[in-house]
Amino acid sequence: MDLKEQRYVCTLAECGNLTRAAEKLYISQPALSIYITNLEKTLGVPLFDRNGKKFVLTYAGEKYVERAEKMLELEREFNDELMGIISENSGRIRLGVSLRRGPWLIPPVVAKYREKWPNVEVSIREWKLSDLSEMLKNSELDIIILNRADIADDMEVCPILKEEFLLAVPQMHPLNAKAEYVPGARYRKISPEHLNGQELILHYPLLSSRKIEDEILRQYNIVPSKIQVLRSMELMYQMVAEGLGISFIREGYAHNMRYKKRVNYYTLDTEGHQKELVAAYKKGVELPEFMKDMIKILQEHGESFFD
After folding, report:
1. What is the dihedral angle through the alpha carbons of 115, 116, 120, 124, rounded to the nearest 10 degrees?
2. CATH number assigned to the domain covering 4-86
3. Helix (H, G, I), strand (E, B), or coil: what is residue 212?
4. In this predicted model, what pLDDT tens digit does every residue of 169-221 receive, in sequence order?
5. 228-211-102 Cα angle (round to 5)
6. CB-based burial label for 304 (10 Å; 0-12, 13-18, 19+)
7. Which fold has domain 165-273?
8. pTM for the complete prediction?
């Protein structure tokens, strides 16, 4: 950004003397005089009244200086921001996350990040995973959060956390008595065959969780007594809490669900249905330090999330 013209006029207006202004600008007096004269000819109006060696702004000159000072202030602000970007002390992160996952994962991460990087703007985009992946590909996002199973070949990934795919059972349901203790696990386990003849609440067919549910039913030859299909995870959770069926839920969502009645959670096949959440960015892109630190804070949050 070159505002030489504005700087010359404002400096001469401030000094009121050609010699002092030239010294302050580190140019010769004749050069400054010629520059101001040529500028006035170009504008078609004098900016200064000459009274001997004294230069006084005309009305047009006053209006010029008003605008020029604002332009010079904007230049100073831009240069400060640019230096911050160059030194990686400021910038912007465009972070993409799914509508369902964002509420339980992102807020504490952004709060911690802002304390460390107050000059970095964090822009959060909530959308469908397929759209977020396309936006990352088109450089419209810098980092997205997704399951490892959904990463593409053009992505670099960093692990955040591993979560179970859980069975959600009403507190007073007879199935609770079938739970088995698993040493070192966060949850007890229920054998899949116990789901035969049970009333199940499943996710809407287009949701990723439904693919896992269908796989479980097929893999273990489970024949429910009744299947109810819902789109809202919150509604499913509350239906289970009210004793209206058994459902499935990802551990991250279960960890943050709240209702006046509780739900019991179990694993069916810990190894087979465990999912890994990752942060992804475009392959071949060298992330600035402030973006690397966002991923680091996401990982720290993931490590302690289920404690």
Report:
1. -60
2. 1.10.10.10
3. helix
4. 999 999 999 999 989 888 999 999 999 999 999 999 988 789 889 999 999 99
5. 90
6. exposed
7. D-Maltodextrin-Binding Protein; domain 2 (3.40.190)
8. 0.66
